[in-house]
Design brief:
Bound molecules: ligand PBG
Number of helices: 11
Strand content: 15-25%
Largest sheet: 10 strands, mixed
Number of strands: 10
């Protein structure tokens, strides 16, 4: 009797392996988050995110061009204002930092797709994602008005899409109504619907100077012990008019990407956040891991889980690896 055990996996070369791949990626699914700040001539490295920079508006074009060169056409703007106040007025100022960046990017890079993060935390003196009530909690309803105002001011300045990340209840409906009323019916909303209160945002808060001055964000961001709550958040946001649902962070939350993909019919975005970037960079700098291979593997795992869109500080690198045939 022949006792040969035949291998279950297909045996063959790289051509065969690529032929039967289940996950394919394309640079058009990538979004690069970029930090813009007031001033001129600035390109300063973010200490906790080596290889990432804060750009003044006059220099952000350097990065936008190198993204375009490898086929990454979508960016998401984060603003670092000079001025902060209780009401976060810099978020919706006509000459706010993001508004200025949008006007310049629209003029210099008409072929790019411009998305904005809509939140108050970079603009409030206390660092919370909305205006505060007397008791130290965020005033949900008053914040909604300001978020809607911010989204409209972004659209006016040239945003192609807005992405509210504040986690206030009812913000998608409020933003949709305000955009429609202002005539921006075609500006979609990508909602940070399933956003966990996460230590993975640590380096971002250094980058944007947006750490809360007191307390934490646990009254408005999600508890990472919960998954059914995330499904509820996603479904409610779709009902309110969200065009795309985002899960954030990526790596430790890919179960949520898979689950939400099952219960909604909108595209799903997964955001590989600052802490994920920092861990890979730190591990690679110490020589403990192979940076390129880890970037490829983590990116593919998000797509394999089912995301359609991947937001990542490694967008340029991933696009290069796709071009070089290392992934995809
Ligand atoms: C704003 C916002 C944050 C991030 C995206 N939008 C910070 C936070 O919620 O504390 C985090 C992004 C990252 O860590 O890369 N609310």
């Amino acid at each position: 009797m022949d006792m040969t055990i035949r291998p279950r996996r297909l045996r063959g070369n790289e051509i065969l392996r690529k032929m039967v791949r289940e996950t394919r990626v394309d640079a058009s699914s990538l979004i690069y988050p970029i930090f813009v700040k007031e001033g001129t001539g600035i390109r300063e490295e973010i200490p906790t995110m080596p290889g990432q920079y804060r750009y003044s508006v006059d220099r952000m074009g350097e990065k936008l061009q190198s993204l375009l060169d490898v086929g990454v056409k979508s960016v998401m703007f984060f603003g670092i204002p000079d001025h902060k106040d209780e009401a976060g007025s810099g978020a919706y100022a006509k000459d706010g930092i993001v508004q200025k960046a949008l006007r310049q990017a629209k003029r210099d890079f008409p072929g790019m797709y411009l998305i904005t993060d809509v939140c108050m935390c970079e603009y409030t003196s206390h660092g919370h994602c909305g205006v505060l009530c007397g008791d130290g909690y965020v005033d949900n309803d008053r914040t909604l008005e300001l978020l809607a105002k911010t989204a409209v001011s972004h659209a006016k300045a040239g945003a192609d899409m807005v992405a509210p990340s504040d986690m206030m209840d009812g913000r998608v409906a409020a933003i949709r109504a305000a955009l429609d009323e202002a005539g921006y019916l075609n500006v979609p909303i990508m909602s940070y619907a399933v956003k966990y209160a996460s230590a993975f945002y640590g380096p971002f808060r250094d980058a944007a100077g947006s750490a809360p001055a007191f307390g934490d964000r646990k009254s408005y961001q999600m508890d990472y012990h919960n998954s059914r709550e995330g499904i509820k958040e996603a479904l409610l946001d779709v009902e309110e008019g969200a065009d795309i649902i985002m899960v954030k962070p990526a790596m430790s939350y890919l179960d949520m990407v898979a689950k939400i993909k099952e219960v909604t019919d909108v595209p799903i975005a997964s955001y590989s956040v600052s802490g994920e970037y920092a861990m890979i960079k730190a591990g690679a700098q110490l020589g403990y891991i192979d940076e390129e291979k880890i970037i490829c593997e983590t990116a593919i795992s998000a797509f394999r889980a089912g995301c359609d869109i991947y937001l990542t500080y490694f967008a340029e690198e991933i696009a290069k690896y796709i071009r070089e045939g290392k992934i995809g």
